[in-house]
Automatic annotation (TrEMBL):
The keyword Transferase applies. GO terms for biological process: methylation. Keywords: Methyltransferase, S-adenosyl-L-methionine, Transferase. It comes from Anaerovibrio slackiae. PROSITE patterns: SAM_OMT_I (PS51682). It comes from the Bacteria. GO terms for molecular function: O-methyltransferase activity. The lineage of its organism: Bacteria, Bacillati, Bacillota, Negativicutes, Selenomonadales. This is O-methyltransferase. The keyword Transferase applies.
Length: 189
């Protein structure tokens, strides 16, 4: 999958982010997971392999082409019966979810992270964890370099997201700065 992703320019989680993701999932052992941004299912299958034995994953993907590719990879895995791909706009599809999620992994439209967080918050278990990839976006979010005009909205919203999870008393957040930045926010109530 990694070779396929690289050869076809599919944005998959980098090695350092994947290490933090799998370590966090293995520590949490979630039973219900919501993933926002499936791509080809690369991180989905790593989450499945490190979650609870009976993990159930709902993964949201906007692109039909990517969802088809993910379906192909997932069907060949031992987790096929535990993963549901929901196609369409993630912001709308989050609102169609019910029940509580032990873990939420956000790796989709970077400018939508604050909106995604607001929408998943009511669905997050009281001891749940939210992991968000690419929160430092090419070094611009915490860097001193001027932000190119085309990235200003994304950087502004990622800064807003980081503020949401670091200034909220219900969460303990660690920003892993390797790669493009990964935020791990543990909810404790």
């Amino acid at each position: 999958m990694k070779e396929y992703g690289e050869a076809n320019h599919v944005p998959i989680i980098n090695a350092k982010g994947l290490h933090v993701l799998t370590e966090t999932v293995a520590q949490k052992r979630p039973r219900r997971v919501l993933e926002i941004g499936t791509a080809i299912g690369y991180s989905t299958l790593y989450i499945a392999a490190n979650g609870a034995d009976d993990v159930e994953i709902v993964t949201l993907e906007l692109s039909d082409e990517r969802a088809d590719e993910a379906e192909g990879f997932i069907k060949r895995s031992r987790f096929a019966g535990q993963i549901t791909i929901v196609r369409g706009d993630a912001g709308e599809n989050i609102l169609r979810q019910s029940g509580r999620f032990d873990l939420v992994f956000i790796d989709a439209a970077k400018g939508q992270y604050p909106d995604y967080f607001r929408k998943v918050y009511p669905l997050l278990a009281e001891d749940g964890v939210v992991i968000a990839d690419n929160v430092l976006f090419r070094g611009y979010v915490r860097g001193s370099e001027p932000v190119p005009r085309r990235f200003r909205t994304i950087v502004k919203r990622l800064r807003e997201y980081i503020g949401m999870v670091t200034e909220n008393d219900e969460f303990r957040t660690e920003i892993h700065e390797d790669g493009d930045g990964l935020a791990v926010s543990w909810r404790y109530r």
